[in-house]
TrEMBL record, chain A:
One of its GO terms (biological process) is tRNA threonylcarbamoyladenosine modification. Pfam families: TsaD (PF00814). This is Peptidase M22. Residues 49-154 form the Gcp-like domain.
From TrEMBL, chain B:
GO terms for biological process: tRNA threonylcarbamoyladenosine modification. Fe cation binds at residues 113, 117, 307. Residues 26-313 form the Gcp-like domain. This is tRNA N6-adenosine threonylcarbamoyltransferase. The gene is tsaD. Its EC number is 2.3.1.234. Keywords: Acyltransferase, Cytoplasm, Iron, Metal-binding, Transferase, tRNA processing. It comes from Modestobacter caceresii. The lineage of its organism: Bacteria, Bacillati, Actinomycetota, Actinomycetes, Geodermatophilales.
Length: 220, 344
């Protein structure tokens, strides 16, 4: 099946098209290992806070490169964060709208699960001098997290991958790694046998309750 | 059907509005609001509004489609508020609208929220006589516009230099211990009061002040001082009289400047829109002054004065009709989108 995956949880905008093939034995339960993922086209753009502007063009490019029409996409995968809220929502609402418009499923995954491969810990920038983190077992299963903490308080173990700028404050080496299409698919494949769960971003923080200057229109 | 079906997205503040319009006919206007969550903060909290937009988006689109009895495949064009408004809130609508437009392969228009407040009147009162003057008053904006062509030429004559009119209502309501938002309770209290009881200042009405600009900050402060002074002196405060006198000061300035703009520009049509346009005294005084000046007054029904998706679809419909080019694929949100930019 054709899967379009996207993630806007980090400053790097990721959009990829993948073909997922199953070697299903009739009647048997399908293990993730029995599915092969081939990435057909991918864009990883240093987008910063321009996810909203660059996402749609990137989707168009990836589909064109894969020779695929939007309506041929069988399923969408989207990173639910954690990540800076405004950019994160751009990806989540885009995936939700695409799935709704095409009439197909959208699977949400934890964006940290899509960073690197074989790492025991992942850290990304949570701003405000904090990190988003998660830890993984030898089999790749997430053990703890996602969480948001000061680097000193993040319970990470080596090897750590993700945002190298936190090497010093973590007191251990961070190997550079980012969200990838393969990573998004790796996290999503085990979910494909069940109906998708509602798409709820992993905010991890409560909203700053500061009213804006722009007030509510005065009326009901 | 000859006329195009336009789906409109509005998320500039705390209302998730999705509307459907065919030509100038209103088909549906679905709304989800996070207002209740902002009440205790006395103003809209942007992050709370943005989270609510995301949650409400797909369900509200479907409510709008169901109300209109159409499906997504029937949609010919999509319009979305690109600005002005709260960036994070705008981006939820812009991203959703772009995704629907991409998947449905229909043109997308990123429209100006203020111009949409004018366009919505066409759904009830037919084609706007152009040029027209538009007075837009809400919690987020207070503007006086000259509208030679709603699809391609809107000019700003004046705007508030400090608070929006609606903000002044909210702040005065707080001084009077009335609930948020302050417009409806002040409107109600004022009906029992005397608008001439207290002479509150009329901002920017001196001979050397900007003819079409507004200022409500001084008025708000004057009301607060007056109330505090009475309270300190142990004298009773008539909420009805303060409400009526404050409201009269606001609507006196708004209507006087709007009528003046019509006269100065030789325009005989005035449209009033935005949330404050639901205020009963504003509507009554505007009608009175327009009648006296021979100006035709158009005000959308209160339901369409506040932010909604139908107004965005209504403007989108005008843009399609006028053959205005659709938005570029890298459309973003512009929190301070100027009014002379009707669409992008
Ligand atoms: Zn508005």
């Amino acid at each position: 099946m054709l899967v379009l995956a996207l993630d806007t949880a980090t400053p790097t905008l990721v959009v990829g098209l993948a073909e997922v093939t199953s070697t299903r034995v009739e009647g048997a339960l399908l293990l993730p290992a029995q599915r092969t993922v081939e990435v057909l086209a991918e864009r990883a753009l240093p987008s910063g806070n321009r996810h909203a502007e660059l996402l749609t063009p990137a989707i168009r490019e990836v589909l064109a490169e894969g020779g695929v029409e939007m309506r041929q996409v069988d399923s969408f995968v989207v990173g639910l964060g954690p990540g800076p809220f405004t950019g994160l929502r751009v990806g989540v609402v885009t995936a939700a709208a695409l799935g709704d418009a095409i009439g197909t499923t959208v699977y949400g995954v934890c964006s940290l699960d899509a960073v690197g491969d074989g790492a025991r810990s992942v850290v990304t920038d949570a701003r405000r001098k904090e990190v988003h983190w998660a830890t993984y077992g030898a089999d790749g299963e997430r053990l703890t997290g996602p969480g948001v903490d000061r680097p000193e308080d993040a319970p990470v173990t080596d090897p750590v991958v993700g945002d190298v700028r936190f090497t010093e404050r973590l007191g251990r080496e961070v190997i550079a790694a980012e969200v990838t299409t393969a990573g998004l698919l790796r996290a999503a494949v085990p979910l494909f046998d069940r109906p998708p769960a509602p798409l709820e971003p992993l905010y991890l923080r409560r909203p700053d309750a500061v009213p804006s200057v722009t007030r509510k229109p005065v009326s009901q | 059907m000859s006329q195009p079906l336009v789906l409109g997205f509005e998320t500039s503040c705390d209302e998730t509005g999705i509307g459907l319009v065919r030509g100038q006919t209103l088909l549906s206007d679905a709304l989800a609001t996070s207002m209740a969550e902002h009440e205790r903060f006395g103003g809209v909290v942007p992050e709370i509004a943005s989270r609510a937009h995301l949650e409400a988006m797909v369900p509200t689109v479907h409510r709008s489609l169901a109300d209109a009895g159409v499906t997504l495949r029937d949609v010919d064009a999509i319009a979305v508020t690109a600005g002005p408004g709260l960036t994070g809130a705008l981006l939820v609508g812009v991203a959703a609208a772009k995704a629907y437009a991409l998947a449905l392969d229909v043109p997308l228009y990123g429209v100006n929220h203020l111009a949409a407040h004018v366009a919505v009147d066409e759904l009830e009162h037919g084609r706007l006589a152009e040029p027209a003057i538009a007075l837009l008053v809400s919690g987020g904006h207070s503007s006086l516009l000259l509208v030679p062509d709603l699809a391609q030429d809107v000019q700003e004559l004046g705007r508030t230099i400090d608070d929006a009119a609606g903000e002044a209502f909210d702040k005065v309501a707080r001084v009077l211990d009335l609930p948020f938002p302050g417009g409806p309770p002040i409107d109600r209290a004022a009906r029992e009061g005397d608008p001439r009881a207290i002479a509150f200042p009329r901002g920017l009405t001196g001979p050397r002040d900007a003819t079409y600009d507004f200022s409500f900050s001084g008025l708000k402060t004057a009301v607060a001082r007056w109330v505090e002074g009475r309270q300190r002196a142990g004298e009773p405060v008539s909420v009805a009289d303060v409400s009526a006198s404050f409201q009269e000061a606001v609507v006196d300035v708004l209507t006087a400047k709007a009528v003046r703009a019509c006269r100065d520009h030789g325009v005989d049509h005035l449209v009033i829109g935005g949330g404050v346009a639901a205020n009963s005294r504003l509507r009554a005084l505007a009608q009175e002054r327009c009648d006296a000046a021979g100006i035709v007054l158009r005000t959308p029904s209160p339901r369409l004065c506040t932010d909604n998706g139908a107004m965005v679809a209504a403007l989108g419909s005008r843009l399609v009709e006028a053959g205005v080019p659709a938005a570029p694929i890298d459309l973003g949100a512009d929190s301070s989108m100027p009014i002379d930019l009707i669409s992008r």
